[in-house]
Specification:
The protein has helices at about 5-15, 20-40, 45-65. The protein contains 3 helices and no strands.
């Protein structure tokens, strides 16, 4: 299970400090889509479905941190 570490959260906040909540949500969504696309790019499409729940949890944590 993917969890946000304290150092990752600190980096996330440092980056997000200059963004409003909507911009941050768009960035988080973009990261999620990039993660999903990487399975196809690396020929691992069969593993993509199993990774989706973890990616969704990570994105929800990011949005929760942003208060979005």
């Amino acid at each position: 299970r993917l969890r946000v570490t304290e150092s990752a959260a600190a980096r996330l906040w440092a980056y997000a400090a200059g963004l409003d909540r909507r911009e941050f949500a768009v960035c988080a969504g973009s990261v999620g889509l990039t993660m999903a696309e990487s399975f196809l790019r690396h020929g691992r499409a069969g593993e993509a479905a199993g990774a989706v729940p973890g990616m969704v949890r990570a994105l929800k944590q990011a949005l929760s941190l942003a208060g979005a």
